[in-house]
Write a structure and sequence with these properties.
By secondary structure, the protein is an alpha/beta fold. It is built from eleven helices and twelve strands. The protein starts with 5 loop residues before the first strand and ends with a helix.
Length: 379
């Protein structure tokens, strides 16, 4: 009998919390609030509309914005596309230059590459060896025709935190729109969009114990951001994202954000202790090194290079641990992580690197078992 695997891949996705599931189930059946939120002429639709409004308020409270600034999407990939393409196409008469980094998620990088094929010019900033973007380098990359900067808050592979407050000050002074992919920071770091000079921010529910298939895009009003829609066909969500709203998924995201607001401080502290426990247990092994800045990182992600170890052999030895060698969006490719390569790691070092990500249901016992399994792979 094989032992139950230990889940250490929370950065890829999280299980939905039981309270989230219960909330979603109440919006699916005939006895529940299954109506179309756009059907405002009868009670079924009005109840669903009220629940969507409540969920919008729950997400807004977590990031400290007005609910009207939030737009529902199918997830962060769509939100990133709508933010970047939407700004680029609406403001292309003002300029066609975009700045991003080499260590962004593929939903940002591939969107930028698509826009390059449409006549836009993109500057891809190289991060420092610790994974952070140099502010002077970013400032020097800005031009009179720059219309957008897109830099993620927390890196999905390394957990490195970018100084979005400082970046926002730079872009605001230049009157350039600033978009932030905040998938890995929502509910895991305090976000106050009343004080941050951020114009667009993308979120996803399934990283914070909510359902897959739902996300949101924050669209700032000062300065007001206008977007060219990606789709057409209805007036929902200010006609920027038409289509029937999935009430059950939306209330799931709302509940997940509501719960995150209640437990975030304690959860950060607990998960950070577990990450330190894991690192202390394996850092003394031969050839092991930490990828990314030792301090400017989110609590739950630990990216480790097992230098001079064959990746396939190591993964086979760690088969009882559910973990990742790169972003879940890169599954199926043998290419080394573009994020680690951008930080200066060789192909060999990047291929020998593993991401451990810890979450709400990880226990001290599981971390200790993981340490023993990793240590056993070296014997």
């Amino acid at each position: 009998m094989t032992s139950k695997p230990i889940y250490l891949d929370y950065a890829a996705t999280t299980p939905a919390d039981e309270r989230v599931i219960a909330k979603m189930q109440s919006c699916l059946s005939l006895e529940g609030d299954f109506g179309n939120p756009a059907s405002a002429t009868h009670e079924f639709g009005l109840k669903a509309k009220a629940l969507v409004g409540e969920a919008r308020e729950q997400v807004a409270r977590l990031i400290q914005v007005e609910p009207r600034c939030l737009l529902w999407t199918s997830g962060a990939t769509e939100a990133n596309n709508l933010a970047i393409q939407g700004v680029a196409k609406y403001y292309q008469q003002k300029g066609k230059h975009i700045v991003t980094s080499q260590s962004e998620h593929n939903s940002v990088l591939d969107t930028c590459r698509f826009l390059e094929g449409q006549g836009f010019e993109v500057s891809y900033l190289k991060p420092n060896a610790d994974g952070r973007i140099d502010l002077k380098t970013l400032d020097a990359a800005l031009r009179t025709d720059t219309i957008l900067v897109s830099i993620m808050h927390v890196n999905n592979e390394t957990g490195i935190i970018q100084d979005i407050e400082a970046i926002g000050k730079i872009t605001r002074e230049r009157e350039i729109f600033f978009h932030v992919d905040a998938v890995q920071s929502l509910g895991k770091l305090p976000i106050n969009l009343k004080t941050l000079a951020v114009d667009l921010m993308s979120f996803s529910a399934h990283k914070i114990y909510g359902p897959k298939g739902i996300g949101a895009l924050y669209i700032g009003n000062w300065p007001r951001v206008r977007l060219q829609p990606l789709m057409y066909g209805g007036g929902q969500e200010r006609a920027l994202r038409p289509g029937t709203l999935p009430t059950h998924q939306i209330v799931g995201m709302g509940e997940a954000c509501h719960m995150a607001a209640e437990v975030m401080s304690d959860e950060i502290s607990r998960i950070q202790k577990l990450r330190k426990q894991l690192w202390q247990g394996i850092q003394g092994l031969a050839g092991v090194s930490l990828n990314g800045h030792p301090e400017y990182r989110t609590a739950g992600i630990l990216n480790v290079c097992f230098n001079q170890r064959d990746r396939k052999t190591l993964l086979a030895q760690l088969s009882t641990l559910a973990l990742s060698t790169a972003s879940a969006c890169n599954v199926g490719t043998e290419e080394p992580s573009h994020i680690l390569k951008a930080m200066g790691l060789s192909d060999e070092a990047a291929n020998c690197s593993i991401r451990f990500s810890i979450g709400r249901y990880t226990t001290e016992q599981e971390i200790e078992q993981a340490i023993q399994i990793i240590q056993g792979a070296y014997q």
